[in-house]
Each structure stands twice: as C-alpha cells, then as structure tokens.
Amino acid sequence: MAKRRANGEGTRFKRKDGRYAAQAYITLANGEKKRLCFTSKDRDKAIAKLETALKENERLPCSGNDWIMADYLDYWLNKKLKRIRETTMLTYRRAIKNHLKPALGNHNLKQLSVDDVETAMDYWEESGCGEATIQKCLMVLSACLNHAMRKELVYRNVAQLVEKPQYTPKETAIWSIEQAAYFLHKSRKHPQFIAFLLLLIYGMRRGEVLGLRFCDIDFLNNQIHVRQQIDRINGEIKARDLKTANSRRTLPLVPIVRNALLEIIQKRKITLPPFNSTFEMSTSGTIVISEAGTPLEPRNLARTFHDLIKKLGLPRIKIHAARHTAATILKDLNVQIKDVQLILGHANISTTANIYQHGTTEIQRNAMLSVEGKLIGETAANLTEIISPAMIYDNEKLLCEQGKLTAVLTATGSKTVA
Question: Is the same domain home to 197 and 307?
Fold first, then answer.
C-alpha cells in the first residue's frame, strides 16, 4: 500500500493527456488560500517543482499580487510620501524614473536576483552614471526591497548582497580664517551682507539663512531662533521644516549681527517686530530678500556669493562650504565639539567631527613646531647626558673598521654591499 501523504503535501496524479500533475494549497500573505499546480511529462520533475514552491512558502508566504518592479517602486514611493521630506522625495523620484525603472522595471519582484542588480549596475555605468549616482540608486532600491521584506513579499534584499562601487567624496574646499575675514570685510556694504554673516559666523545652512525672519530674533535676550528654512520645491518657493529636530536651535546674537539687523530695519523703515515665541512657518517677513522685496531665491544667493568671490580674487568654494569653514574655525579656536554640534544643529556629533571639521595646515604646523620644541629645543643641552661616551667610542670604532674594509675591497676590485 502507498504511504499516505501528510496534510499540506498536496496530491500527485496522472492527467488524461498523459502529463503528471503535482498540486497543493498554500497560504498567501493576506491569509487566503491559493492552489499551486505544476505539470510535466516527467513525474519526478512535477513533484520537484511543487516541493520547491512549498519550501519557498515556508520561508515566505506568497503574495496575491505578482508584482513587477516598476509597479512596486511606485507603490513603495506612495507609501513613503507622507513620511519623508519633499526634497528627499524628489531625489527618490529622479532615481526611480531615470535609473531604476529603465534597468529593472520589467523584472519580477520575487524573482529579482543579485545578477539582475549587478547587470543594472553595469548598465548605469555604461550610461555614464558616476559612483555616487550608482550608490544612490542602490540605496533607494535597498530601501524599497526592505519594505518588501517587511511585507513578506521577498525573503532577502538582493541590493545589499551586491558589491557596491567604492566612492570617496572629494575633500571640501574651505577658507582659512584670514580668507573668511577678508571676505566679510570687503562685503560690508553688500546688500546681502547679513546673509554672509549668518553663513560664516554661525555656519547656518543656506535654506536656514533664507528662512530666518525678524520675528525669529529676540533682541531683548540677544538670541536667534532657527525654526524654518526656505527652498524652491516643484517650481515654488516654500517655507518648510528644518532638516532634523536638532536643527531647530537657539543661537546667541553677537554684536556685529545685531548691528547689521538693526541697520536693515532702519534702512527698510520697518517697525521692529516683537519676538514671536509661537512658531508658524511663513515666507513673509524674511530678513534676506530680493530687490523686489520677496524671499531670495536659493540659486540667486549662491550666484551672488560666487560672483563676489570671483571679484575679490578668493579661492572658489561652494556656498555650503561656508558651513564647513565655520565649523573648522570653531575647532581651531578650541571650541568644544559638543558646542560646535549644537551651533551647527547636527543630529550626531560624529557628523560634526568627521565631515564638517577639517584639518588646518597652520594649526598642524604650529603643533609640529611645539613637538619640535619639546623634543629638540628644550633637550638639546642634555643630549650629551643621553649619549654615553662608550656609545660614542663604539660608533667611532665601527666607522673606522668599515673604512679599512672599504679600502681593502677597493684595492682588490671587489664591490661593497650596501
């Protein structure tokens, strides 16, 4: 008598057309039942196909949707729509539209393999994508596949299994403290002088500078409250929340910035608004404005910054590098790293230390001169005490013996060994 199969193993039988069938019911991710059926002229092959599907189902309940990557990328992006920043969403959309869909859009989600992703990476590279772009694509794909894993649609994230390209960001060019001081001195009469002060003294982000309003300034307690930023998103100037929770911070209002703000208020003939502790995002009442009196375009601030740099003959740096410059100046002034983190509004202190603070050649030179002074200058008088007469005699004897040996070898035509 044939052995009775256990529940869940399914049935095997020969069909009227002579082919063998192996079938069983499995449970979908939504709890519904689905029948799988595999056929083959070879009985063992039909059974093997079914057993493979059953083993796969043990690791991962099957989905009712047979997802194509293009559809799942759109589905995932819509799920994240309310949980990520608009600028981040634009980055994700560009990566999906320009790179992920053309290379992987027609692939089946569950059948996506490491080879498929590696082939896509080759395609991106041949299309002229740089290492940074490829890494961004893999990051977006990996986030999408992690979502699919949580939904039990795939059992592994193949984007994390590929060998990622090595990418080393270029060292950010920054100014020395003398160059930054020269720039501020020469731009004293410039209409956007207050923006330059905020960039180089506080290391504020460009969007934070543009989003700062008079109602964010507490003149009574000499404090600046960074609470919003302004960006152009989808063709529109918008006030939006700051990058992280730590970005919302209170900074001391130093005299030169205070005087510059009061000068602007007097020049524009506006009534000094009281500090508003109740926070509401708005594009009205901003300190940095265009000639038309509207919030200044982020691109225009960068253009103005670079034009002035060129006019003054200073080394060209990115406008965001002013933030790096401020962080490095604070380091060189021996400000504690925790305080620098709070001034810049970083979420992690490692970001401040490893990315925004740079080595300074002059500081390193002074440090090495200090080491030289300690090791050489102050101990030179005591070197005769450190080196004993016996050591001097032994060295002189060794040199004498080496000289005799060299003379003998030269006379016999032999070569010395270095």
Answer: yes
Whole-prediction pTM: 0.68
Q: 222 and 253 in contact (C-beta within 8 Å)?
A: yes
Residue 218 banded pLDDT, cuts 50, 70, 90: very high
Q: How many CA atoms lie within 13 A of 197 on its CB side?
A: 20
Residue 377 in any domain: the answer is no
Phi, then psi, of 63 in degrees rounded to 5 = -90, 150
Taking the C-alpha atoms of residue 306 and residue 292, their distance in angstroms, rounded to an integer, is 21
CB atoms within 10 A of CB 357: 21
Tens of pLDDT along 262-288?
Answer: 999 999 998 887 888 888 889 999 999
Q: How far apart are CA 145 and CA 153, in angstroms?
A: 9
For 78, the domain range is 69-160
- Look at the chain and report how many structural domains it folds into: 4
Triad 188, 193, 199: Cα angle to 5° = 125
Q: For 357-373, what is each residue's pLDDT tens digit?
A: 888 888 888 887 777 67
What is the distance between the alpha carbons of residues 310 and 303, in angstroms, rounded to a whole number? 11
Residue 225 maps to which CATH number? 1.10.443.10
